[in-house]
Specification:
Shape: rod-shaped
Oligomer: single chain
Helix content: over 70%
Distance between the termini: 58 Å
Largest sheet: none
Radius of gyration: 27 Å
Strand content: under 5%
Length: about 80
């Protein structure tokens, strides 16, 4: 970099600083989005488990086969 003028050095230094900041900000946005997605998935899993419990109870009351029984057993093991 010895052959760059001070003006060019400053130009590239500014680019490095600005793009590093942008890179870090994008990384933070990604982390925030991942948190939101994980929270949404957790809520959907809770809703699914609740619906499965209601469905299973209704199947037992009616004496009909629960087509999701294997899935229900897997979720209980978790």
């Amino acid at each position: 970099m010895g052959d760059l003028s001070e003006e060019r050095k400053q130009f590239y230094t500014d680019i490095v600083n600005k793009t590093k900041l942008e890179y870090d900000e994008i990384g933070e946005q990604i982390e925030q989005e991942l948190i939101a997605v994980k929270e949404r998935i957790a809520k959907l899993n809770e809703d699914k488990a609740a619906a499965l419990q209601v469905y299973s109870g209704a199947c037992r009351r009616l004496g009909v086969e629960n087509e999701f029984e294997a899935e229900e057993e897997e979720e209980e093991e978790e």
